[in-house]
Specification:
Layout: H1 2-20, H2 29-51, H3 63-74, E1 82-88, H4 93-104, E2 111-116, H5 121-130, E3 133-135, H6 143-152, E4 159-162, E5 168-169, H7 173-178, E6 186-190, E7 194-195, H8 213-224, E8 236-239, H9 240-245, H10 256-266, E9 270-273, E10 279-281, H11 287-305, H12 320-331, H13 335-352, H14 363-384, H15 391-413, H16 433-458, H17 469-497, E11 506-518, E12 521-530, E13 534-539, H18 541-548, E14 554-560, E15 563-577, E16 580-587, H19 592-610
Parallel strand pairs: 1-2, 1-4, 2-3, 6-9, 7-10
Antiparallel strand pairs: 4-8, 5-10, 6-8, 11-12, 11-14, 12-13, 13-16, 14-15, 15-16
Length: about 625
């Protein structure tokens, strides 16, 4: 913690020095003030990183405690009543089926309720088949919040698990959450949102990190230490008595979870956080779903901030730290205005030779202090959150958040009432693809163009104002960095938009050995990625020649931890690679045993991958 504390102290010194030394150039106030504001905001972020620091070994509930709880319940003693609620509206069958089965099979006595706001007959039939309760209601008032409130009247459990319709529960979910409720003040326990489609739009290229990793694995656990964590919708467990004490899930805004959390914590209830993977879901596959989801979050947060009843600054009975944490979460949606100025400053400096810095000190004195502050900012963030902070990846998504923040801010100023829009998880949505791609290339071109122009001016080839050499170097470095960021984002948008697969796949951390068969011929294969509907196989060309000659009678044999997977397959693609062939295959009609074997393996394999971010149980 000492290194981060030193960075915070230096940041405070740097900001005070900048102002006291008169280095904010008021002749170009439209650049000088935004620049010092950006630097002050970075110092504020360092301060938050410092106060949220905590050891990786704080520990979540250990496996032994969960096993003891299950054993006690199996003996019909100390067994709590639990209902699992699955609100759904328009999710397709291949998503909902595995969610329902996984919820039903959680290893603790409970009843599962499917809350269908889409009133679909096939969902009712599926619920009968899977032996779970089917619930519908006469209208869709208040959307998800209203759906859960309606379920309060038809369910009886002391505790309620809420899972989004695309989240697959792991067997230990109820046992892990229940132990927190020994404290009668606990109203909600939230878990991290982990995702099984690790090639989604919000994931890093290797799938090991996503845009929400830092929030769920570092920020929210730290907020819980001051009872400032909040319900994030899924996966979570709620105490019925707590919900009923505030009249049910709050319905004022389109972000019912954080709104309900504010009400609960203002009345003395505690919201806990279990930093261990207990369910895996779907992240938005492309920019369409990413933008829709974040716009809803931002509009809901500003909707609360604009309402005196829910504004954490004036809401009664919140503690000072809770006010700070909630205000930080809501004011996050204003940051894009600063980010936009951050992108504006380098090209303006390079093209118009306008300085946001008044050099009342020597250039060397300024750049040494500025460079030290910049290096300490990046290093301190890595020290404060070594598992979850990614500087380049975070920077890559910042242009999108800039647009989101400005959009929701303008909506708030215009007093537009936000509408609830379900996040699309489709693999093939493309409506935002071309305009966003064009915007990314335009901004990258402006950055590179301004840098090129400045180089030509300094070389005496193009006319223009010279001087400010150190400032031009700094602005040029930022222009180049921003150009790279925008081009990386353009590539990410393009890759997601070109997706032709119909189903999400799970890229395996290590290939699984298998056999591809056709009549009496067989070839050894390695399963590279896997989904409920197909797989990508790698195989030697010589081994494949005779097997692939019989395309209509192929089958795949793979040994999984839970049993043997044997499935008929159809070849859908064949891609040559040096020394290998990659074959994309689709599974034929599957038995229930085949389906459940795959579901269990895919859910558990992702949970294992996500354990890199789980809290370790504290040492005895």
């Amino acid at each position: 913690m000492g290194a981060v504390a030193a960075a915070v102290a230096y940041g405070a010194y740097y900001i005070v020095w900048r102002v006291a030394a008169g280095t904010v150039d008021m002749r170009a106030w439209y650049l000088g003030i935004p620049l010092i504001a950006i630097e002050a905001f970075a110092c504020y972020q360092l301060f938050l990183a410092f106060v949220r620091m905590r050891a990786d070994t704080r520990g979540s509930i250990g496996a032994d405690a969960v096993a003891h709880l299950l054993a006690a319940c199996s003996l019909d003693s100390e067994c709590f009543t639990v209902d699992v609620l699955l609100p759904t509206y328009d999710e397709p069958s291949e998503v909902l089926e595995q969610t329902i089965r996984a919820a039903r099979d959680i290893a603790y006595p409970h009843e599962t309720f499917v809350l269908d706001d889409g009133t679909r007959s096939w969902v009712e039939e599926l619920c009968v088949q899977e032996e779970v309760r089917y619930v519908t209601r006469p209208d869709r008032a208040h959307f998800k919040a209203g759906n859960i409130n309606h379920a309060l009247g038809v369910s009886e459990g002391e505790f309620l698990v809420v899972l989004d319709a695309d989240f697959i529960a792991l067997p230990n979910l109820i046992g892990a959450f229940l132990l927190y409720f020994d404290d009668e003040r606990v109203a909600v326990v939230q878990g991290p949102q982990a995702f099984y489609n690790v090639d989604s739009f919000q994931h890093s290229r290797d799938g090991s990190w996503n845009d929400q990793t830092h929030f769920f694995r570092t920020v929210l656990p730290a907020k819980a230490q001051s009872n400032s964590a909040f319900w994030c919708g899924t996966p979570a467990m709620l105490r019925r008595a707590a919900l009923e004490s505030i009249g049910g899930v709050s319905t004022h805004s389109i972000t019912e979870d954080i709104e309900t959390s504010l009400v609960l914590e203002s009345q003395g209830w505690v919201i806990g956080y279990h930093n261990e993977t207990v369910a895996v879901g779907q992240a938005p596959a492309n920019i369409e779903g990413f933008m829709t989801q974040r716009l809803r979050w931002g509009r809901g947060a500003l909707q609360l901030l604009a309402t005196r009843r829910f504004n954490p600054l004036v809401m009664p009975d919140l503690k000072p730290r809770q006010r700070l944490e909630y205000l930080e979460s809501m004011s996050f949606w204003f940051q894009g205005w600063l980010f936009s100025l951050e992108y504006l400053i380098p090209p303006v400096v390079l093209v118009f030779a306008v300085s946001p810095v008044a050099f009342t000190v020597t250039p060397m004195a300024f750049f040494v202090r500025w460079g030290t502050f910049t290096v300490l900012f990046i290093a301190a963030n890595y020290v404060a959150a070594p598992r979850t902070f990614r500087f380049l990846e975070t920077s890559m998504y910042r242009p999108l958040y800039t647009l989101i923040h400005i959009t929701v801010g303008l909506d708030a100023l215009a007093r537009r009432r936000p509408a609830f829009k379900v996040t699309s998880k489709s693999l093939n949505a493309r409506s935002l693809f071309r305009p966003f791609l064009a915007a990314m290339y335009v901004v990258a071109a402006v950055m590179l163009g301004s840098l090129t122009y400045r180089l030509l001016v300094e070389a005496g080839i193009a006319p223009g104002v010279t001087g400010y050499r150190g400032l031009f170097v700094m602005a040029g470095a930022f222009a180049l960095y921003f150009a790279v960021v925008f081009l990386l984002l353009a590539r990410r948008i393009t890759v997601a938009a070109r997706e032709k697969r119909r189903y999400f796949r799970r890229k395996l951390s290590s290939a699984i050995a298998g056999t591809l068969l056709a009549d009496d011929e067989r070839a050894p294969v390695a399963v590279v990625d896997l989904s409920l509907h197909g797989a990508l196989l790698s195989l030697e060309p010589l081994d494949a020649a005779e097997v692939l000659a019989t395309l209509e009678r192929l089958s795949l044999l793979v040994e999984l931890p839970g049993g043997t997977l044997e499935a008929s397959v159809t070849l859908r693609s064949l891609t040559p690679s040096p020394g290998l062939l990659f074959a994309g295959v689709e599974f034929g009609s599957a038995s229930d045993e085949h389906q459940r074997l795959l579901e269990a393996y895919l859910a558990e394999s992702l949970a294992v991958a996500e354990h890199r971010y789980d809290d370790r149980p504290a040492a005895a």
